[in-house]
Description:
It contains 15 helices and 22 strands. It has helices at 35-41, 62-75, 124-132, 149-155, 162-165, 193-199, 233-246, 281-285, 300-304, 308-317, 330-340, 346-349, 390-409, 424-431, 435-445, and strands at residues 3-5, 10-12, 22-23, 30-32, 55-58, 79-82, 98-101, 108-111, 115-119, 136-137, 172-179, 184-188, 207-215, 217-218, 222-230, 251-258, 264-274, 292-299, 324-329, 353-359, 375-381, 413-414.
Amino acid sequence: MVAFDPADSRWLSSLPENSTAIQLPHLDGELVIDEDALTEAATDYGHLVHRRPRAVLRPGSVADVVTLVRFANEHGIVVAVRGQGHSTFGQAQADAGVVIDSRTLATVHEIMPGHAVVDAGVQWLDLVRITLKDGVAPPVSTDYLGLSVGGTLCVGGIGGASQHHGMLVDNTLELQVVTGDGRLVTCSADHEPELFEAVLGGLGQFAIIVRATVRLVPAPAMARVYTLTYPGITDLTAAQRTALADGRFDYLEGQLVPTDDDDFAFVLEGGAWYTAEPPDDEAVLAGIEPTGVDVADVPYFEWLNRIYETVEQIEALRLPGPWLNVLIPDAATDEIVTELLTTLTPADAGGVALLYPARSSLVTRPQVRVPDGEVFFLLALLRAVSPPDDAEAERLIADNDALYARVLAAGGTQYPVNALRLTPAGWRTHYGDRWPAVLRAKERFDPHGVLTPGQGIFEPLSRAPGTP
């Protein structure tokens, strides 16, 4: 596409004479409107929301992102960025706008002992493969490595190592971004810190991440993985609290695993890293009293990438996925989860549910909202509706809304990769006393409100004068 007609918001493959169409500035990549591209951009991992854009940009350079965002500001066009498409409720979609496909910006620019410089479209899987050759890796990894760097940093990036290192946003040293008003800016804690803090965990509302410098640490060769079973949910959480307090595991998660009688088993999954000498099992297990113990040694990369194939297989099924991820204050966790288990079935949970602790003090980016108190638990219900059924999906979304309200009432928050029907008022509740700063950042960095409308955080802002 080479031109845009603001009279009817159409993209054109030529510039007609004597028309209101406006020629698009030069692009190194391409702007496309073919059926396959638009259909993909109106779909995500959740398969619940389908907002169709009018065009998709496959940028050939960072300059293309700048060009498109400036053009969008001039002509009242909304813009969203789609990485690997792992949103669950249309968050990266742009109804009647333009979706930027970041997969064409996927270069690893630099690997150093303490950091890597990568484009936003790089998958963590590809980065880890490269960094491990030099004996380093990011300190935190999400369970699924097929996510893009830019998409993850817009949300937070939590994993089993967050108990020691915070989230991936807490291990980001510098960003290159395109602000909502079309400026290319490099920002860090020391340079443009307000923008830096707004963008990390900012859900794509203030700027588009195009490049990131992320921290690397020495990587082990092996992981000793402990799968520990407990008779009840509070037995599991008690063991997790003990392990969190003394830091015995490098990786700490918990799982509610379906059983043959349509119930759950309660499992602590702990990882201890090593290169030469394996850990002392007796010391690792002391004081946490599991009723079942399984120990396995696997190469570190295999551990990090253990669920990639499973997620790819699930994604190919195109099942509706009304996910819910909530952060519960430690003091309320046992009560809320015990109450939930009186009605939750493995089918409603999407199979395995996750429940694991982390430290609030290590989550330092203000856009990522965590409960008050030193410890919180992530509860993740990665729901899937099989076979696909619209009514069942709606029921589970309603369940999400109800459970989220329960968590909010207990002082909890959400980890925002969810199928929740949040209004702007609901987002104000989510941000709490942070809301005035969020609003100021939106007004400063995206004054025309062109970025990431699918999140539904703000009331639609006015478009440029004279546009539809």
